[in-house]
Amino acid sequence: MHETAAAPAQLTPEHRELLAQVLDKWSLQVLETLCERPRRFSELRREIPAVTQKSLTTTLRRLERNGMIDRVVIATRPVAVEYRISALGKTLQDLIDALWAWTTATLPQVERARDHYDAEVGA
Asked: Has this prediction a pTM greater than 0.85?
């Protein structure tokens, strides 16, 4: 890593833990979905069909614990729960958009590199 005035001198265990929790398999999709508008659990399941109920529950709890989303109880009958992107979570929007743009732009190169590697290694 290159050291800059705003960047830490080293990637600490705390940094790695937070990045792992925010950039894991389901968190990015949940955050991207909630940046559009608040959703109930069942809506999130429909929007991200590959996620299991258990994985979505774990992801939502982790994101809430880290302050990225808010869990809002709505006083209806029956009581409803809605998940919303928090103010802190909104600060990730530009970064998430940049990651999507980067993956879209570089995916063809990555696929060529994978094909080359697989041909060389015989995978």
From this structure: no
